Amino acid sequence: MSARKTAKPARGSRRVFSFGDGKADGDAKMKEMLGGKGANLAEMTRIGLPVPAGFTISTVVCAEYQAAGDRIPNALMPEVAKALVKVERVMAARFGDASLPLLLSVRSGARVSMPGMMDTVLNLGLNDRTVEGLARLADTRFAYDSYRRFIQMYGDVVLDVPRDRFEHRLEAQKANRRVHLDTELDADDWRELVREYLRIVEEETGKPFPQDPQQQLWGAIGAVFRSWKTPRAITYRKMNAIPDEWGTAVNVQAMVFGNMGDDCATGVAFTRDPATGSNVFYGEYLKNAQGEDVVAGTRTPQPINKESRSADQAHLPTLEEEMPKAYKQLARIRHTLESHYCEMQDIEFTIQAGKLWMLQTRTGKRTVRAAVKIAVDMVRERLISREVAVGRVDAGQLDQLLHPTLDPDAPKKVIAKGLPASPGGACGAVVFSAEDAETKAKAHEKVVLVRIETSPEDIHGMYAAEGILTARGGMTSHAAVVARGMGKCCVVGCGTLQISYARGEFRVGDTLVRAGDVITIDGSTGEVILGEVATVTPELSGEFGELMKWADSMRRLEVRTNADTPHDAKVARDFGAEGIGLCRTEHMFFEEARILAVREMILATDEIQRGRALEKLLPMQRGDFVGIFQAMAGLPVTIRLLDPPLHEFLPHEEDGIREVAEALGDDVAAVRARIEERSEFNPMLGHRGCRLGITFPDIYRMQVRAITEAACQVAESGVKVQPEIMIPLVAHVKELERLRALAEEEIAHVLAAHPGSRLKISIGTMIEVPRAALTADAIANFADFFSFGTNDMTQMAYALSRDDAGKFLPDYLETGILKDDPFVSIDRDGIGQLIRIGVERGRSTRPRLKVGICGEHGGDPKSVMFCDEVGLDYVSCSPFRVPVARLAAAQAAIHARQQKKAAARPVRKQARVAAKRATSTRGTRRTRS
Ligand code: PEP
Ligand code: MG
Prior knowledge:
It contains 34 helices and 32 strands. It is an alpha/beta fold.
């Protein structure tokens, strides 16, 4: 919606919507016009709840106000005057009348909640005369306390008087009277303070404080509209993707008082426990207080009932005990609201002289654990459908349920912040090498592995550590990808860390952390914390399983996993994976027992030497694949042939070089020279992926052979296997043509030795080089399947280094240049186009081509939505993200169905209109004839 469109309401359309006494002009569906708060006040009034009368000025006026250079549109005035008369009638009080004064609250309220970002004025309508009227109706102390609150709030919000001028004066009054609390000041104190506050306003603004209630009201309405444009509101909108043109509504409502005496109170409550989701009424209140006192935190609120009482609140009385009648009514309203909204509500209420008033209701925020329980319980209670329940849980937060997390109540000293690469919390002694991590873990010591960046050589240390912290790297850097695969907590790209391996320490600002010091890292926020923070292990509830079952019945996308070991494969299968979409074979090459043979293979000078090394590796690889096929019995397993540049496997230390030289029977200098030769300026675009298979076909032959032999062996033991061989980094169709022929030849060779075998092995390719996507029609001639490698594709097409982007991407996100990290959520506009092209062109050659994704995006809910939209067959992600992807895939399918229905609606409507017209035309003809 453009600002121009919202700037003028249609002629005759209303700008002001009244509510009160059981009647309302608006309702809950009108959030766009009335804002969330206004729409729900109207709705609560409609369903008969006790809401103080008031009116909402529509969001449309906000745009009008701004378009007119911050001026109230003339047309608004008579509408407000009319609405105000209604409020006076319902509340039996008069605005500005000294004998029966009506006081108002003026609050903002956007379509979505923007807590604390915009302005509010309370107790409006008080002046030197009405305060006396209020004093007669209530008591003098209360009246003058309300008046000074009003002057302070109005002075701050509308007249720009520095807030601390009032606060200093209040503190001085307390000091004079030798008291600590506001509640200890008496009526004379407040009267004196009011005089002082009025003087401060006049001094600051050069004018007396406005005594005319009408002037006060228009001043407050204008200030609320202006608060839409304060820097904090603008930043909040940017961070939460809230369009600037939405604008805020203004809610003007009769004041009710929770601070008139001991039969008054104010509080907030949730209709269910927002932490656990259990179906209990949960909330807190303050006796003799106004809403702002609850927020200010100067007094400790009391629980509303025993279910809301924490262990240390056993001595506190509850609302249920102190004001049983009002509590009973509130508890009834809780049920009314839930069955009306079919959703957990967060409410605000006030009790004035024993009478309950509802001031707000909105959808309650909750933990993911509570979200799952509430969604499933509400289906059981027949409040919502399964589809609604599945749509209500934030898939992105689901993996918080699967990892231990930091105790949110524990104190913590955050010393640095990096990228939250893999969720959960981890705590342990700092180690700086994989070797130390392994040794200490063997001695049952908990460690956090801290590295400038990790490489495949660190895998054993990453396994041993509780968590991993790196100074460099982005969300698809080695550390991030591997840690996620292991389900280990990881923070990467923490650029403020200055690590010295030589001294065994790191510094962040003035803080020095030595090897052995304990730190905690939070993989969900990226925080690095000094010392130990307790972790809590979440339990998977029965409701989680139930919700996932429903999700599975709704989704179209298959969900596979990226797993390289039988253990990871099993974890993923337990989480519901339906196959392996990516098994990175290079990870198997780093194990201690094999690295020597791998190095021999790479540094061999001729076929014979290489052949000897490959002979050693063959049985090891075969063993790996047997384990994986067994773990994934009956499910497809995509195994990718060797991908990374060979130099990554090479030794750099003297000992390692000597060891390889001995194994090869070569001299050390010659081996060192060959290592030099292998080094590349730009390894990510160098000798890797299928290029290795082209120059060293024997490596790929060995791998295909190991896969096929393993598959035969497992199949012969009676277990169903479905191997799929995947060729990485293909850019040109000829690469795939040649390597497919090589693989087919090797498969045929192995199968010839297993005459009874009916094994079918499909051969496909990764689409990760942009050129491959553009030439997908040609490539599809030689591929049984495609799998989009969106990590490399993002790197290459966006020209963003996977390992260096962590240094500058956070600035892009902070300044709003980018909304999402493109390594986390697929960049729909750019990379998304390549994917669409790849799918369309691939399927133009082979209509039934199976297409999936195995980049890290496969476990990101937004990207899963995109994958569903472009018609992929499956997504593949790290084991702990499998439930996330299952839920996200279901939500994507629900969304697609809704879109389809919405698109069909006008067509159906047109058809109905046409049919009606046809009937009436026929009718007319008949009459005429
Ligand atoms: C990719 O590039 O998206 C991919 C899955 O491969 P890797 O991360 O191993 O480069
Ligand atoms: Mg890749």
